[in-house]
Amino acid sequence: MDLAPGALMGPLMMLLGYVGLGFIAAQRLKIDPRPIATLLVYLIAPLTIFRALMNGGPTTQYLLLTLTLFILVSMMALTVRWVTQHRFGPQEGALLAFSAGTGNTGYFGLPVALILLPPEGVTLYLFCMLGITLYEFTVGFYLSARGHFSVRESLIKITRLPLVYAFLSALLLSTLNVTLPDTLMGSLAVFPATYTLLGMMIIGMTLSQVTLAAWDSRFVATCVGLRYLLWPLVMLGAVFVLQHLTPLAPELAMALLLLGVVPMASNVVVVAMELGIQPQKGALAVLVTTLLAPLLIPLYLGIMLSLTGLG
Q1: Which of 151, 99, 118 is nearest to 263 (CA)?
Q2: For labeling, which of 5, 114, 211, 250 is most exposed (least CB within 10 Å)?
Q3: Does 1.10.10.10 match the CATH number of domain 5-305?
Q4: What is the pLDDT of residue 242?
């Protein structure tokens, strides 16, 4: 298995290129990123997930994997929220809690998964990723909103998120064996690429508005620790437990380990922008973890594969 940094430079340069485009667009064209964040949350993300589910043919085993990841990352986020609530301000604490339960599993992780995993492994990775995405727009969104809104207001915001309804609609249609027309599915094919492009550009747009006052060393260091210490340990522990309990497919083990080493989620910036909770700090932390990724992913995966006997 090729874990050399050169194998990951393609996805990294693509991501950084999109960030650069966003920076230039905001600087030269004076584009406001806030409407784009709203577009991502309320339209592009739901249609992207709906299309993925309709194409993926969800089975009971795949959905169990999605549910397990959803519960696991929600527990991680709630634990971090409890630990950090008295050490950071309400908005910083909410952003940390949200970021603790997610990672850049789509924009960065999926291109890497396509390099490292066989087709079955990519499918397993996608349904793991779906559990994390559902967390982002349910529990994670609630935790983020609680940094700025009341419990009632936060719950109302969740009920207005169409991604939840897109997920339930896709499951219902799959259960009823409903097949959508090819022309309709073809028209939805533009949304995954749009989601990736705008999701990364919004980081650059936010960075264009960053001032030196937005840099918070303690906040960034905590984000790096959550992403590159807590997550690798949790996913390594999950693989150890599964190996002890049942025969574990190497493809699933590799998918779980990869989830543990991707950088911070770009949706940290998207949600922070939508809710107005420190998007500049979030953008700086996402950028730092993304720049560290090509150095740390090969190192971490090499060590983890060796420890789990998969190397």
Answers
A1: 99
A2: 211
A3: no
A4: 92
Contact yes or no for 263/289 (Cβ under 8 A)? yes
Print burial letters for 285-296: b (CB count within 10 Å at least 16), e (below 16): bbbbbbeebbeb
- For residue 265, give the 3-state DSSP assignment: coil
Cα–Cα distances (Å) from 126 to 119, 121, 171, 249, in that order, read: 11, 9, 15, 16
Please name the residue that has the structure tokens 């560290």. 292
Alpha-carbon distance of 231 to 27, in angstroms, equals: 35
> What tokens were used for 228?
């590159």
Whole-angstrom distance, CA of residue 221 vs CA of residue 88: 13
Residues 6+ apart with CB under 8 A from 35: none
Q: Where are the alpha helices (DSSP H) in the chain?
A: 5-29, 33-39, 45-56, 60-84, 90-100, 109-116, 119-136, 139-145, 151-159, 162-175, 182-187, 190-207, 217-225, 231-245, 250-259, 267-275, 279-307
Say how far apart CA 263 and CA 69 lie, in whole Å: 17
| Residues in Cβ contact with 127 at an 8 Å cutoff, skipping those fewer than 6 apart | 56, 58, 62, 63, 65, 66
Residue 207 burial class via C-beta count within 10 angstroms: exposed 0-12, middle 13-18, buried 19 and up: buried
Encode 136-190 in three state secondary structure: HCCHHHHHHHCCCCCHHHHHHHHHCCHHHHHHHHHHHHHHCCCCCCHHHHHHCCH
pLDDT at 155: 74
Predicted pLDDT at 134:
84
- Cα separation, 221 vs 218, whole angstroms: 5
Q: How many CA atoms lie within 13 A of 31 on its CB side?
A: 20
Instruction: Specify the residue for token string 């397990």.
Output: 68
Instruction: Tell me the per-residue pLDDT of 71-85, one tens digit each, with 9 for 90 and over.
Output: 999 999 999 999 988
Q: How many whole angstroms separate alpha carbon 267 and alpha carbon 287? A: 12
Assigned token pair, 131:
């559990």
